[in-house]
Task: inverse folding
């Protein structure tokens, strides 16, 4: 007698290779019902932003196509995942439900309750790790608590074994005789109503095949020079794997294994300085999930509690925030990054640090406002990474940059975009500016501006703040906070 059906619940593991829940379901012996449940409440206050929804739509399409190539298909449901899954298990008389774990606070709470409910009904419920090299609950410092500094965290992780990436063991996935009712992916309404994301498809290829293609290109062309070129935004010198990692179209074990394969000829792992630095960036992603797991309040509140009293500037009409969002700050490197974000759903990591520093230190607006904007506009919006990045920039998180470390936009632009090519691409108003002046057009002679067709205050804005004055005000605010903290501690 064949085994009863098993429900394979896809979440952010939208791939077939290195998918331990799929591997276990395939070995179950009965029909496998792959299911995706679009649960708007799953993330708590952090439901998917518009750019992420665009990616999710196309990723689900690709996953369904891959499943159909193996004689299966993706069943689409919508609603609160717990009752939907409970009803589906009842209707199908499924004796098992398998999934891969998520680590956001809301997901952890929901999954624990769901596992308990299904198990009490006699269902075999199993969850697996597909998203991380090292699960947060398995990593603790010598005192038995969480790490809060990256270097000792990653040093410790590198002493631990990494499970090898797995593959599905059969060309076909056992299908049921009859399929349950399913929505069409289009019915989820994931695509933006406005056409602002129309250009995303020219920059991205969502899905497992796109992830593999991108990884091969990066490992072939860029990884060995990653340590030298990752900070130059005009180069294609970073992996850009972050959106595929977020949606689980590729897993970190696959990256680890690919780097291992690349190092075989030399016998040294990682095989180059660039590969070593890149692997440490994979480690930062692990560290971000570690912190979110142990400090679940940090998406809304600073890890360093004294920063809750930071004297942020007032922006009652939201005009400062809007100028930053639109890339109209008057600082070319900042504006280039914000426009790259809007047009592609992604921003170079060096520039992310520059624009974040500008928001929280030059404009002195709360880091949460920046985190909200990134969450809505990034195709790789990930709660753990987003939280770590913004708290790092604001100086209020674990292993954060000190608040008094204030990026000078002109200096950053001249250092990392020396010829101005990145700015010229994303800020076409400045495309004819010479490199000497492109990062500080307000200081350029009038004849240079005239030749370049730049009219400050007209077709390109004057700087919305003076760097020296903004820096002084930020340091004064930090001094005020530090004084208050000392007073409270006394």
Result:
């Amino acid at each position: 007698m064949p085994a009863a059906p098993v429900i394979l619940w896809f979440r952010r593991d939208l791939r077939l290779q290195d998918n331990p829940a799929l591997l276990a379901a395939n070995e179950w012996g009965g029909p496998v019902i792959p299911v995706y449940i679009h649960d708007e409440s799953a993330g708590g206050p952090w439901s998917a932003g518009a750019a992420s929804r665009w990616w999710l739509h196309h990723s689900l399409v690709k996953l369904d196509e891959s499943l159909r190539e193996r004689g299966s298909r993706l069943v689409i449901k919508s609603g609160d995942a717990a009752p939907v899954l409970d009803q589906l298990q009842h209707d199908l008389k499924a004796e098992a439900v398998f999934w891969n774990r998520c680590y956001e606070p809301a997901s952890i709470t929901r999954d624990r309750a769901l596992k308990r409910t299904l198990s009490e009904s006699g269902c075999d419920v199993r969850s697996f790790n597909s998203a991380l090299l090292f699960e947060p609950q398995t990593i603790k410092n010598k005192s038995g608590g969480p790490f809060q500094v990256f270097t000792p965290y990653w040093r410790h992780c590198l002493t631990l074994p990494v499970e090898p990436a797995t593959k599905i063991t059969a060309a076909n996935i056992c299908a049921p005789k009859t399929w349950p009712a399913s929505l069409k992916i289009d019915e989820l309404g994931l695509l933006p109503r406005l056409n602002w994301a129309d250009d995303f498809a020219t920059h991205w290829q969502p899905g497992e095949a796109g992830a593999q293609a991108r990884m091969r290109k990066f490992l072939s062309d860029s990884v060995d020079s990653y340590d030298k070129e990752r900070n130059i935004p005009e180069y294609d010198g970073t992996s850009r794997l972050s959106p595929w990692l977020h949606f689980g179209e590729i897993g970190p074990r696959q990256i680890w294994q690919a780097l291992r394969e690349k190092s075989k000829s030399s016998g040294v792992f990682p095989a180059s300085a660039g590969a070593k630095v890149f692997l440490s960036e994979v480690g930062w992603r692990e560290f971000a999930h570690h912190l979110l797991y142990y400090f679940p309040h940090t998406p809304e509140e600073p890890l360093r509690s004294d920063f809750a009293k930071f004297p942020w500037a007032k922006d009652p009409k939201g005009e400062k925030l809007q100028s930053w969002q639109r890339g109209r700050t008057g600082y070319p490197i900042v504006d280039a990054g914000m426009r790259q974000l809007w047009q592609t759903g992604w921003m170079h990591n060096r520039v992310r640090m520059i624009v974040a520093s500008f928001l929280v230190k030059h404009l002195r607006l709360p880091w949460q406002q920046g985190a909200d904007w990134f969450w809505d506009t990034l195709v790789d919006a990930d709660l753990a990474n987003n939280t770590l990045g913004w708290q790092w920039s604001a100086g209020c998180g674990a292993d954060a940059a000190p608040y008094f470390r204030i990026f000078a936009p002109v200096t950053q632009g001249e250092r990392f975009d020396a010829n101005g090519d990145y700015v010229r691409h994303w800020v076409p108003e400045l495309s004819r500016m010479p490199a000497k002046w492109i990062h500080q057009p307000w200081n350029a002679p009038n004849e240079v501006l005239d030749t370049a067709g730049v009219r400050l205050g007209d077709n390109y804005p004057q700087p919305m703040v003076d760097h020296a004055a903004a820096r002084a005000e930020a340091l004064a605010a930090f001094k005020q906070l530090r004084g208050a903290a000392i007073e409270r501690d006394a």
Q: What stands out?
A: Strands lie at 6-10, 32-38, 75-78, 96-100, 124-128. Residues 222 and 236 are 8 Å apart (CA to CA). The chain has three domains: 6-130, 132-164+208-294, 305-483. The first strand starts at residue 6 and ends at 10.
